Amino acid sequence: MPPLDLDDFDRRILRLLQQDATLSTQDLAQAVGLSPSPCWRRVRRMQEAGLISGQVALVNRAALGLSALAYIHVTLIDHTEASIARFNDFVQRHPQIVECATITGADDYMLKVVAEGPEALEHFLMREMLALGLVRSSTTHFALRQVKLTTALPV
Questions:
Q1: Of 56, 65, 148, 75, whose CA–CA distance to 114 is shortest?
Q2: Boundaries of each HTH asnC-type domain copy (predicted)?
Q3: For every residue of 26-61, which 3-state class applies, written as one string?
Q4: Fewer CB within a 10 Å sphere, N or C end of the chain?
Q5: Confidence band, pLDDT 50/70/90 cuts, at residue 2
Q6: Are 101 and 110 in contact, with CB atoms under 8 Å apart?
Q7: Exposed (0-12), middle (13-18) or buried (19+): which is 113, by Cβ within 10 Å?
Q8: pLDDT (tens digit, 9 = 90+) per residue, 60-70?
Q9: Both 71 and 36 in a single domain?
Q10: Residue 137 within a domain
């Protein structure tokens, strides 16, 4: 799919929606200098093109009691289709894994995991992830403090 051709209005709309997706069409239009109808059409076009794929509420993990944040590098025992499918399924089924990427280098995956604390994270690692029998090695990096957290992409 070729990228959507965006002009300055589209980019301003995207920047504002990434900051606050609850803006009304009227407020959004006023902020970017358009009338509501053209603004709505632009948003709709970006949604239909898949550029805007959804709207969510960003929840404060610490306020939920999820004080532990860790990045886990994982290397699988083998790279068979069955092993990869099983590990990917495991990732999809566990809500404490909030991000997962396949990566280059010595490891196969990098997971971003949240938990109530170190003990809960250890339980996840030992009793769930390593118990799969698919992981050759894992390295866990605890985040001490998040210096930056954003979901906004540079537009």
A1: 65
A2: 6-67
A3: HHHHHHHCCCHHHHHHHHHHHHHCCCCCCCCCCCCC
A4: N
A5: low
A6: yes
A7: buried
A8: 999 999 999 99
A9: no
A10: yes
Q: Which two tokens stand for residue 68?
A: 């532990």
Give CA–CA dist 29/146, Å, rounded: 34
Query: What mean pLDDT comes out for the span 133-140?
Result: 98
The pairing of strands 97-102 and 135-142 is unpaired
Residue 79 domain-assigned?
Answer: yes
131 belongs to a structural domain: yes
pTM (two decimals):
0.89
Question: Does residue 137 sit in the same domain as residue 70?
Answer: yes
Q: What CATH number is given to the structural domain containing 18?
A: 1.10.10.10
Cα separation, 82 vs 14, in Å, equals 40
Which of 75, 77, 139, 70 shows the shortest CA–CA distance to 107? 75
> Residue 95: what residue type?
P
What range defines the domain where residue 28 resides? 8-48
Which tokens go with 116?
Answer: 């109530």
Residue 4: per-residue pLDDT:
86
Task: Tell me the per-residue pLDDT of 32-81, one tens digit each, with 9 for 90 and over.
Answer: 999 999 999 999 999 999 999 999 999 999 999 999 999 999 999 999 99
Q: What's residue 89's pLDDT?
A: 98
